[in-house]
Amino acid sequence: MKRISQLLLPLTLALGLSACQSELEDINKNPNEATQGQPDYVLTNALKSSADLVMGSDASMETTVLFVQYWAKIQYTDVDKYTTSPTNVQNVWTNTYTQGLNDYAEVIRLGEQAKNPNYQAVGLIMRSWSFQVLTDLYGDIPYSQALNIDQYLTPKYDAQKDVYTGLLNDLQKAVTLIDDTGVSPISGDVVYKGNMKLWRKFAQSLRLRIALRIADRDAATAKTVISSLSKTDLIASNDETAQFTYLTSPNQNPVNRDRETRDDYRVSKTIVDKLVQLNDPRLSVYVNKTADYTPQGYIGVTNGLPADSAARLGFTKTSKLGDYFTAASAPAVFVNYAEVLFNLAEAAQRGLTSDDAATLYKQAVTASLQQYRVTADEISNYLAQPSVAYDAANYKKSIGEQKWLALFGESQESFAEWRRLDYPQLKPAYAGVLNGRMPVRLTYPTGEQALNNANYKAAVANQGADLLTTKLWFDVN
């Protein structure tokens, strides 16, 4: 009997402790705190983080918007000379994986749980957009093993070709999931307000974008994707542009928030000169006149000047960014209508469709001008200029330069298309630190070298040296 009691005592204590732990867990649950996210709240938060990626400091103001010479620095000019900040590079990577992508994965999971295919579809579309931005910037990235930390604590890097192929498949799956009958409504959608027909158009427009991104490397896949699309599948007006519209403070556009405390950016001389040269009516939208009178009215700053040279130009004698882009509610654009038309024009020129490239090019330029409320007469006069006319013999120049102008508020996409089309032919920063070369990617964050070193090394071995000047797979020329 004594032996039995000795055996039972530890068991009784264990059960007692287990019961106490269970009771403590129950006591410590906050009845007013959700234990599971709601898909509408998670979706809104994720869309906001994606918009901040488009417009924010890390992937735009301190990197790509300077690389493609939309803006320039008049103070703190090191980043304009291609001395990128490790913090900016790390933030783009970390914030995209841990915020946007993680939230979209949760939206997909909650949609599956609720048997709502539309949450799943929207999550897949925006997850694909996020991965596309990452691979465009870095090259090979964790994709197939990403977002599954329980199974893959240190995910492998997928080759860029495989990432693009996977995204085309993911977007096709999203299209098939969409139910636009109204049976499966969604909330929290601050892009299209639950209009699933427009989400389908967004998904197909992304497929068109990616198909052209790979066209110089994998023409067969590009042709297959583009042949499966019709104009009715795609974003068809400026009203259908996929964008996030900000509110007032504290939920304002990041550019507006930046201007509350800083004044170190000006518009680049490169784009000011091009707008002036073309008599482009977007000049007064993109660029403000100098605060002090100057004969030219609009004066840009050369990218990558030494700090003292930039400062001598004068804060009041150089042009700031146009009010449209610094407004609190200025939108962050994911895909705009003009881009879709430029992509269709290029597809036609490449023989991937039977459409007329010159007509689509004119429609694309028109759509961009209409986006900024340019009048019909101004549009007609602009298109009539020989310097704007479509040149089929050098379509990459015509499309590349006008797309660069049209993507003024979307520097990540413009950076990718500049590398792919090789137009406009930009000159490296005046005092650039890359021996007369320009950045063509972001380097991997130092956190990856410390925490995922084996896979990081494999990616570098596959892709090339981890430098700003190493071309990515899609960047052929």
UniProtKB/TrEMBL annotation:
The keyword Glycoprotein does not apply. Residues 1-19 form the signal peptide. Pfam families: SusD-like_2. The keyword Signal applies. Keywords: Lipoprotein, Signal. SUPFAM superfamilies: TPR-like. This is SusD/RagB family nutrient-binding outer membrane lipoprotein.
